[in-house]
């Protein structure tokens, strides 16, 4: 991938950074280059993005968009930040998540919000916020990846300001709704805390086992019980002072 705005470096999705001289040599020896076209502003009609849209999403994100995750984008799921069908299949509503963090967003109490330029803000189950930018913004700072969502269409027969459950949903999907949560957010948070504690316990136990191979048992030896103090001897040969 070599955006038109930047000719200093190329990136292979799922691979690494390719210097331009090496790219020129690869092309000379038969490598193929395909232009990356900006997707249409109109949302696609289906849940699964087209090949063209998927390539754009992967080229923009390059990795999983969860903070600190480096899973290559071509091995990630392309998720609807706002769930489909209320959220359209559009680059302004799509982001690449590895399967672990995709499940964390769907069932783990995490939520995310995508800006038009690809900046993604995560909110943890505890309310903490984390902001990430797509890796392409760091490698190609001059590449304009803004893909704002088009304004939502009004449902026919609805007045201005009237909110309906199906606003923005494609006609063929009217009547669909997201399934109800099997647990409340508070229950999900408690389950997350318990799972984290259990994982920490397992990790600490494994670490202790490894250290025990080197240092010996890590359990402290029981301290010996202190010897009882001798009782004072009242008969010391001196008469009492009375």
Task: Summarize the structure in words.
- By secondary structure, the chain is α+β, with helices and mostly antiparallel strands.
- The protein has a domain at 9-150 and 166-179.
- It is built from five helices and seven strands.
- A three-stranded antiparallel beta sheet has the order 5-6-7, with no helix packed on it.
- A hairpin with a 5-residue loop joins strand 1 (9-11) and strand 2.
- Residues 227-242 have a biased composition (Acidic residues).
- Residues 50-103 form the HNH nuclease domain.
Largest sheet: 3 strands, antiparallel
List the secondary-structure elements in sequence, H or E: EEHHEEHEEEHH
Would you tell me the overall average pLDDT?
78
Which percent range describes the beta-strand content?
5-15%
Strand order of the largest sheet: 5-6-7
**Tally of contiguous helical segments:** 5
Number of strands: 7
Look at the helices and sheets and give the structural class. alpha+beta
For the termini, the CA-CA separation is 106 Å
Radius of gyration: 31 Å
List keywords for this structure.
single chain, 242 residues, alpha+beta, three-stranded antiparallel sheet
What's the arrangement of secondary structure elements?
Layout: E1 9-11, E2 17-19, H1 20-28, H2 51-61, E3 77-80, E4 94-97, H3 99-107, E5 111-114, E6 120-123, E7 129-132, H4 135-139, H5 185-215
Antiparallel strand pairs: 1-2, 3-4, 5-6, 6-7
Biased composition (Basic and acidic residues): 157-175, 184-200
Protein name: HNH nuclease domain-containing protein
Biased composition (Acidic residues): 227-242
